[in-house]
Amino acid sequence: MDLLVSAYLYKSLKKKEEPFEEAAAAAADTSAGATATKAISIVTSIFVSFAAVYLSWSCNTAAGVDTGLKIVFAFFAFLFGFAYLIFYLIFRAGRCTPPVPQVVYMQAPAPAPAAAPVAQAPIAPAPAQAGGRRGRGGRKCR
What we know:
Layout: H1 2-17, H2 22-27, H3 32-63, H4 67-79, H5 81-92
Helix pairs in contact: 1-3, 3-4, 3-5, 4-5
């Protein structure tokens, strides 16, 4: 559908530019310029159609539409790409964003009061060995 519209618009603009060569233009459709124009029209039409399908699918997904209906809407958006883009820009632009989930911040519970620290007993020095110079001051016998 878009291809037909774009080809019609191109031909009508071409006639306005060169009204005196209507018969020559019909015969010259096989030129390289006409082929390039058709190729550009096809590429543009496909691009517009896929953009319309993407917008249709994403907007209907955000609205929570069933998959079957999304496929039907995407099919018609593909066929009538220019019309769907105009419809989207007028009625749906800015309204098709998915709802933002509300984030609720909760305060963490206060930590339980810590128990009073238990004081550790100081480490007692090791008892001195009997005898030796460091013991009770006596001399060691050999």
